Amino acid sequence: MTDTSTATTASVPLAPQRLPLLGHALPLLRDPLAFIMSLSGYRTMVRVRLGPSSAVMICDPDLTRQVFLNDRVFDKGGPIYDRIREVIGDGLSTCSYTLHRRQRRLCQPSFHPARLPGYGAVFAQAAELKARSWRDGDVLDITQEMMTLTTRATMQTMFSGALPEETMRRALADTATIVSAFFRRMMTPALLRQVPTPQKRRYDRARKRLSDTIAQIIAERRADPTDHADLLSALVGAVDEESEDGRKQLSDGELADEALTFFLGGMETTAITLAWALHLLATDPDVQHRLQVETDNVLKGEKLDPAHLPSLGLAGRVVTETLRLYPPAWMMTRTVRQDAELGGVRLKAGSTLVLSPYLLHRRPDLYTEPDRFDPDRWLDAQPDRATYIPFGAGPRKCIGDQFALTEAILALTAIVARWELTPVGDKPFRPKVETSLSSRGLSLRLGERWAGGAESHGAHAEAPAPARPSTEPGVATCPVKHQER
Ligand code: HEM
């Protein structure tokens, strides 16, 4: 990369509210989203300090895209990935550029489009089971409910067949412990992270137990390598024909890292996307009603199936809009591997860059009324690949994007078919900002629907749904599907 610029990082403005020694750690810990949005006036870059170290936050969509696309220079790294690496080692999402291409080639077949209908059938069944488990009038911890749903669905698509209930329960509890500890550990200086507090001990225990569970499943699969048509079989059987060092397959250690990566990477992000989508529907009865009409018209009393996906246009737009408002990966970091230039500024090797989908998705110059939930903004518009980045972009773009969208749209449909959702209390619910933009603590009330859902699921059937005309145009499932890297 030719460096023709003269400006250095020192010329990038420093964000306000900095304290001596702590830098911006306090506002970032106290209210990270308010802090991030307070930076939206900076159109290109702004510097943020965390104690002695500093990071450059990229505020411009085109510069963000340049960073995503050039993963050789702007490599995975920085505090988020350093903490995640503690748990999942050098899996696909955390490994550096030098390891990445081989791992991506080996993991990609697991997400081949031909496998999606099979995974979709598992998602649809798991979602219907979950929706059937609730009772009229229930007040649910909806994030917890969605976590158990996606954990079960992810476990089944990864490891096929039913895992023992105790294994499932333990994996869920350990995942929750690990996920909630990530963000605090990311913000805590290295020395303090080693202090054996009860929290740290809990975190270490959960990490070890989850790794042991996965290692045990892998050992059993190695002993019986027949194709189980699941993610693990695809990983075990993957062959890298382009390998330059003779390592054509994943070793046991690599396999464990990848399995843990898919499990942790896929299950929480999809669960909170679903929880936010249900929250947004509960607070917008009009959209919720339209979605029920779509669901009734598409299912017509049939069992939910991945073949319904192309007709679930509004459900797709609800998910797209949810990911705009609450992108689970609300910020990402990169390490600059060699001196480089970005937007006319010279960046030194070793600098940390911060990218934020949350910031871009809520910029008023990029989205009309950016804080408003409006799935119809996607009716005639494809998401723009520079300004809509819930799955990142470029060579490190989420490998599970279609997997997650399929799961989210099917689960949303199964739930809305059967239940009317209403908020609990009248206080606005605010995200818990962790490594993900979490909906932890969100409650919703359920009322059983009088029609379509009950009819299609049998158990609570009362009256068949009267035919209501669809108000939805028959657009494809989800605009994100057509987005390129
Ligand atoms: C709504 C759900 C999801 C969201 C919002 C999401 C978001 C993201 C984002 C933003 C990245 C890029 C991170 C970066 O560039 O720093 C990413 C990467 C990744 N995601 Fe997802 N993800 C979701 C679901 C999934 C699922 C279901 C899986 C697997 C089953 C998965 C596995 C991965 C992996 C392995 C990577 C690393 C890819 C690479 O570096 O080549 N994700 N995800």
Q: How many strands? A: 13
Task: Say what oligomer this is.
Answer: single chain
Overall average residue pLDDT: 85
Can you name the CATH architecture?
Answer: Orthogonal Bundle
Q: Name the structural class.
A: alpha+beta
CATH class: Mainly Alpha
Heterogens: protoporphyrin IX containing FE
Distance from first to last alpha carbon:
22 Å
CATH fold assignment: Cytochrome p450
**What low-confidence regions span 5 or more consecutive residues with pLDDT below 50?**
451-480
Query: How many domains comprise the coordinates?
Result: 1
Query: What level of helicity do the residues show?
Result: 40-55%
Strand neighbour order, sheet with most strands:
2-3-9-6-4
* Number of helices in the DSSP assignment: 17
Q: What is the topological layout?
A:
Blueprint: E1 7-8, H1 25-30, H2 32-38, E2 45-50, E3 53-58, H3 61-69, E4 74-76, H4 79-88, H5 97-107, H6 116-132, E5 139-141, H7 142-159, H8 165-187, H9 190-193, H10 198-223, H11 231-237, H12 252-282, H13 285-299, H14 313-325, E6 332-336, E7 340-342, E8 345-347, E9 352-355, H15 357-361, H16 401-418, E10 419-423, E11 432-433, E12 437-438, E13 443-448, H17 452-457
Parallel strand pairs: 1-8, 3-9
Antiparallel strand pairs: 2-3, 4-6, 5-13, 6-9, 7-8, 10-13, 11-12
Helix pairs in contact: 4-8, 6-7, 6-16, 7-12, 8-10, 10-12, 12-14, 12-16, 13-16
The structure holds protoporphyrin IX containing FE (HEM).
